[in-house]
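Hey, resending since the last one bounced:
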Amino acid sequence: MREILDLVRYVAVFYLLEQMVFNLLPGKIYEKYVRFYLGLLLVLLLLQPMFRIFRLTEQMDTGALMHELRQEVEELR
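The C-alpha cells again:
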C-alpha cells in the first residue's frame, strides 16, 4: 500500500513539474519534443515499481557488467 501511495505522489509531483516546464517553454515549436521526452520519463516512473518487484534493476546491472567484462577480455586478446 505504501508503494502505491508513493507512486501517486511521484506522479502528482511529475505532473506539476511537467506543467511548469510547459509554461517556461519559449514557444510552441519545442512542445512536441518536450512532451515526447517527458512521456518517456513518465513511463520510466511508472515502471519503477515493477523493476523493484522483479529485481530487474539488479539483473540489468549484472548483465551490463558482464557485457563490459566480455568487451574488455576481447580487447585484451
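DSSP finds three helices and no strands in the chain.

Sorry for the duplicate.
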